């Protein structure tokens, strides 16, 4: 595949400087392969894959290998795998299993979410892997630490994003130039609220060398998200989005409205987050469509999403400036 003259494309071996964010729950082999086959980088995320086979419950670490094998049946293009990175033994152990499953399926691009961890970094580098580092709350210091320890690409995420929101108050188009100026030569990608070509152009104008996109791919035909959730996003607006904890937002589902009421009344964010996770996190609403009892996490730019399209069309629209 011929790539454009772009550092992100050269590092990843892809046609377009676009990474599909590893969306929790609403991610599977079909969507990942479709993104990679369209010339961007598809990334397999958490909780992807079968929950049971022939009545037998499949452990999370086993699902990784099963779903990666399915990805490889659908594409020979580069793909990535999500890895959580933190300074605790459980996270490290899970990362090692993910790295082993990735090597077995010819995957060597690792999209890390979290803090720099020497053990995880070393294991990836020893395996010949490429590291895309995304700090949950990016700072110039954390970016320099990642760069000094071998990160190949750094993602600068603003509070405009869906999923777990960075702490602090820096939006995408303030954090991107901050991180670009903080590192020496490592390419920076922009994440948070980018849903159309205007967002891509703005990110590049601020020094980004690529974009890291999640919410826009929820409204792709290949995404396993529930149809009623896709319809809510297409009909929705960023002004409707409400906080359920300081680091989590949702479209105004009945559950989200109640969580927001409790948060504003002074209940601890930790208690609310724990309850959301005990009920399945994003799974109930976003995967199964139970918007009464679950939350729908999206970025704040959804007013620009007005259609459900195949992944290939979304990639081509976002990357219009990079087509021959």
Topology of helices and strands:
Blueprint (H helix, E strand, L loop, with lengths): L6 H6 L5 E3 L8 H9 L4 E3 L7 E2 L2 E2 L2 H15 L4 E7 L3 H16 L4 E6 L3 H9 L3 E5 L5 H9 L4 E5 L14 H11 L5 E4 L5 H9 L4 E4 L1 H4 L8 H9 L6 E4 L2 E3 L3 H11 L4 H10 L4 H5 L23 H8 L6
Parallel strand pairs: 1-10, 2-5, 5-6, 6-7, 7-8, 8-9, 9-10
Antiparallel strand pairs: 3-4, 11-12
Helix pairs in contact: 2-3, 3-4, 4-5, 6-7
Summarize the helix and strand pattern as letters. Answer: HEHEEEHEHEHEHEHEHEHHEEHHHH
Classify the secondary structure makeup into a structural class.
alpha/beta
- Helices, by number, come to 14
Low-pLDDT residue intervals, each spanning 5 or more residues: none
How would you portray this structure in words?
There is one protein chain. With 324 residues, the chain is of the alpha/beta class. 40% of the residues lie in helices and 15% in strands. The chain contains 14 helices and twelve strands. The protein has helices at residues 7-12, 29-37, 60-74, 89-104, 118-126, 140-148, 172-182, 197-205, 215-218, 227-235, 254-264, 269-278, 283-287, 311-318, and strands at 18-20, 42-44, 52-53, 56-57, 79-85, 109-114, 130-134, 153-157, 188-191, 210-213, 242-245, 248-250. The strands form three sheets. It has an eight-stranded parallel beta sheet. β6, α5 (118-126) and β7 form a beta-alpha-beta unit. α3 (60-74) packs parallel to α4 and α6 crosses α7 (172-182). The longest helix has 16 residues, at 89-104. The chain is globular, with a radius of gyration of 18 Å. 50% of the residues are buried.
């Amino acid at each position: 595949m011929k790539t454009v003259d772009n550092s992100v494309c050269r590092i990843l071996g892809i046609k377009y400087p676009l990474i599909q964010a590893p969306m929790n729950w609403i991610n599977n082999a079909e969507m990942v392969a479709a993104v990679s086959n369209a010339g961007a980088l598809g990334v397999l995320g958490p909780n992807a894959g079968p929950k049971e086979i022939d009545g037998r419950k499949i452990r999370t670490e086993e699902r990784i290998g099963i779903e990666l094998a399915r990805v490889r049946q659908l594409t020979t293009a580069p793909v990535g795998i999500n890895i959580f990175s933190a300074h605790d033994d459980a996270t490290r152990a899970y990362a090692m299993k993910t790295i082993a499953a990735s090597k077995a399926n010819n995957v060597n691009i690792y999209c890390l979410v979290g803090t720099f961890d020497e053990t995880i970094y070393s294991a990836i580098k020893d395996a010949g892997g490429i590291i895309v580092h995304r700090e949950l709350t990016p700072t110039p210091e954390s970016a320099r630490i990642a760069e000094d320890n071998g990160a190949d690409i750094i993602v600068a995420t603003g509070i405009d994003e869906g999923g777990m929101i960075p702490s602090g108050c820096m939006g995408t188009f303030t954090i991107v130039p901050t991180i670009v100026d903080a590192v020496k030569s490592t390419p920076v990608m922009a994440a948070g609220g980018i849903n159309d070509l205007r967002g891509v152009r703005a990110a590049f104008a601020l020094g980004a060398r690529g974009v890291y996109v999640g919410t826009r791919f929820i409204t792709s035909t290949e995404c396993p998200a529930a149809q009623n959730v896709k319809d809510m996003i297409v009909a929705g607006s960023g002004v409707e989005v409400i906080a359920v904890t300081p680091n989590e937002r949702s479209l105004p589902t009945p559950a989200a409205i109640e969580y927001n009421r409790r948060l504003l009344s002074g209940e601890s964010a930790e208690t609310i987050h724990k309850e959301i996770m005990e009920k399945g996190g994003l799974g109930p609403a976003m995967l199964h469509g139970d918007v009464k009892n679950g939350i729908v996490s999206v970025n704040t730019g959804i007013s620009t999403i007005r259609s459900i399209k195949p992944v290939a069309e979304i990639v081509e629209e976002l990357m219009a400036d990079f087509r021959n």
